[in-house]
Write a structure and sequence with these properties.
Elements: H1 7-26, H2 30-47, H3 53-77, H4 92-99, H5 107-113
Domain Fatty acid desaturase: 7-122
Keywords: Fatty acid biosynthesis, Fatty acid metabolism, Lipid biosynthesis, Lipid metabolism
Protein name: FADS1 desaturase
């Protein structure tokens, strides 16, 4: 019962990491795969002498969980469909403009979203 709230935030980042490596391997993107592996090599090399493996894995999982939660907040706050009830046979650009919105500008929104709160201009 206590594990359930943690599963969705942890499973999606774990699956995403696995899938990213899987695609790079199956499509033979060897340079990209090497760069992705260097992150983990550098991470474990840097912190491996300070922390045990279980703690390092927990740290990576926590990082991925926070990162995915942030990504969902940032991407969904300005991709809320505005006026798309049915196909109005509009061109792609018009449909995209109707399906996104800008979010109020503030110091916090600008910082938190990396200026992606200006989604239409983005």
């Amino acid at each position: 019962e206590f594990v359930f709230p943690a599963l969705p935030p942890l499973l999606f980042p774990t699956f995403f990491q696995y899938h990213t490596f899987y695609v790079a391997y199956t499509k033979k993107y060897w340079v990209d795969l090497a760069w992705m592996l260097t992150f983990y090599i550098r991470f474990f090399y840097t912190y491996g002498s300070l922390l045990e493996t279980k703690t390092l894995n927990s740290l990576i999982s926590l990082h991925r969980m926070l990162e995915s939660t942030w990504f969902v907040w940032v991407s969904q706050m300005n991709h809320i469909p505005m006026d798309i009830d049915y196909d109005k046979n509009l061109d792609w650009m018009s449909t995209q403009l109707q399906a996104t919105c800008n979010v109020e500008q503030s110091l916090f929104n600008d910082w938190f979203t990396g200026h992606l709160n200006f989604q239409i201009e983005h």
